[in-house]
Automatic annotation (TrEMBL):
Keyword terms: Coiled coil, Hydrolase, Protease, Thiol protease
Gene Ontology terms: biological process: proteolysis
Calpain catalytic domain segment(s): 220-469
Pfam families, alphabetized: Peptidase_C2
Active site location: 226, 410, 426
Phylogenetic lineage: Bacteria, Bacillati, Actinomycetota, Actinomycetes, Actinomycetales
Keyword Hydrolase: yes
Protein name: Calpain family cysteine protease
Coiled coil regions in record: 89-116
Amino acid sequence: MSMGLSLDAVAGGVVGEVPGSPGGVLAVADSWRAGARVLDEAASSVVSSRLAVPSWQGISAEAFRSSSRGLEGDLDASIMGLLDGARHLEAYAQVLADAQEALERLRALVGAALLEAVDAGAPAVLVAGVRYAAAGAAVGIRARVSIAAMRTAAALNAVGVGGDGAGSGVGVGASGDSVADDSKGKVDDHTGAKTAFSAEDIRRLRQQADGRADWDSAHQGDIGDCYLLATLDAYSRTEDGEQFLRDHVRWSEKDQAFIVTLYDDDGKPVYVKVTDYYTDGNQGDQVRDRQMPNLISVYERAYGQYLGDHDLPGGKANEAMEDLSGRDAHRVETKGAPGFLGWWREDHKYTDSEWKEIEDAVEAGCPVVGGTSDGDFDDGSSVEAWADTDDNGRVDDSDEKGVYTIAEGHAYSVVAIDDKYVTLRNPWARNDTSGGYVPPEEDEEDGLIRITREDYEKYFQHTDIGEIPGES
């Protein structure tokens, strides 16, 4: 026994220790996250105070608003720094814990090897070789920790927060590249590149999920999922629909991910963990001078994972509605009638009852999506229509009439219907022009377009209708 203790002591001397406390580092990270939450509440109070006095005018009012915006910006920067720093600390704590565990395993192996060598009467040179190899392995483990510590320190300096070890016994720094940076630009399935959420993304998305911020309309990128984005856009166009989307996504502090609730074919909930978004998918919100992901981006990524991470193109809006809500959705189609010699002829007409069903659904705030697959494009795709060329969020008499192209094999959300017209929104966030009409470059039309009911019947062979959000 005394020989065993002696050998264990020798093994410990050969292997050495990795100083520091992973728990202590995690405690610091938790305190930074708690600080970020406090600052987030303060930022929300600043915004609320500014919005609470909309009628206040004058020099003092403008000075107050300017000051509050500056304070809000400073708070946001501090929040992002704390969240980024906490993430780097957590990553370093994992490196530290892994290294300490690895040294424990190495110590046990070295002790056993030395004991076996002594019992077998091995030559001293063999014992020395074991000790030399063990010492080399231990040096490699401690070097990884040192490198991680230096990188963590550099990362904390970059985000504007400092640390001198956080109980680790060495300088705390980055764990190397963060999880977010590690995944950028990588292709891991057929939908293409993913980008991990940044701390700023997470803050904004959490505000959208809990009702403190809105999000821009869908803006389709290079993924052919118009049916899904038109569906999400249809939900987003009403207060009940927005709340429905908010109610089905939450932030998990434990998982550091958004948890989106979707539904299987039996109507049972499926929880999808989302930590990144499609780089070339929905274009998100315009924030300052760049596009950033929004809640629609979160749902787009969740749906891609729900489908098994295969290509999103080729879906149906009514199926997406059921997957999003767990409730029935159905399709209304133009049917046609028997023609010459009994051949079936598609007449591209909705019956009066079908029109009423579509109108009632739009009026009630149901998600409604029109699709142009199997539409009548025999004589082209150009229509005389009105688009939101003055960027006031609606199509009205102030907009100039032009010649636009209806996209074949595409899906549009149905915004409004009256006795003569159907107003749609193209998830491309634009409507291509034809016939020589081109809106001025400074105009933004956001994809809204108003066409006649006759043109809708001609080009939109089917209309998908979901249930009213919020009603059982």
